[in-house]
Amino acid sequence: MKRLGVLLLVLGAVMFAGCTTQPRVETDHQADFDFSSLKTFDVAETKQDSKESILISPFTLSHIHSALEGELAKRYQSAAAGAKPDFIVSYHVVIEEKIDPRSYDDLYGFGYYGRGYRYPRPLFYGAGTGLRVYNQGSLIIDIVDAKTEKPIWRGVSEKRLSRDMAPTQQREVLSRAVTEVIAQFPPVN
């Protein structure tokens, strides 16, 4: 009996881990840039001027700023006050409402081959369709060469967000996104 309990616990943990979605991270960079020459950085303040970012809490933006500085400080030096850094980091957060068309089977549950309970149409069997609205969050991190003021690297993390996330949960998700994106910098040629 103990073995069955342990087996169920392990199975539940594996299923839960499979249900969590990892953010998708994509990067792009200027191919001929010498990233080994970068030593100092500065994180630029972001502006809340578009209608997408005006809904994001200034405390969340401040948290992203601190997370970026912390991650970059592990490998680079922060530029001294008044000194010109080698590269400047800017970031943007975009939250978009998306629609996901889904289809589902009207019969599910238990019984013979799992088809003992009918929902939502008790008299008919078949596939139904529905629309699911969700929020898609994108964290965009741009790195610019401070000398030429031209972009040299971009990292983007996208993740489906729950509509009922508390601000602390949002900040945890964004901290992980910052870590995963900055882990891709500098690019390996």
Give, in spatial order, the strands making up the sheet with the most strands.
Answer: 1-8-7-4-2-3
Shape annotation = globular
What's the helix-strand series?
HEEHEEEEEEH
**N-to-C span:** 54 Å
CATH topology of the domain at 21-96 and 135-182: Double Stranded RNA Binding Domain
* CATH class descriptor of the domain at 21-96 and 135-182: Alpha Beta
Q: Structural class of the secondary structure composition? A: alpha/beta
Radius of gyration: 23 Å
Proportion of beta-strand residues: 25-35%
Describe this structure in words.
By secondary structure, this protein is of the alpha/beta class. The chain has a domain at 21-96 and 135-182: Double Stranded RNA Binding Domain. It has three helices and eight strands. It has helices at 2-19, 58-73, 167-182, and strands spanning 24-29, 40-43, 77-78, 87-105, 107-108, 117-118, 127-145, 151-161. The strands form two sheets. It has a six-stranded mixed β-sheet with strand order 1-8-7-4-2-3, with helices on one face. It starts with a helix and ends in a 7-residue tail after the last helix.
Please tag this protein with its features:
Double Stranded RNA Binding Domain; 189 residues; 3 helices; alpha/beta; 26% helix; two-stranded antiparallel sheet; 34% strand; 6-stranded mixed beta sheet
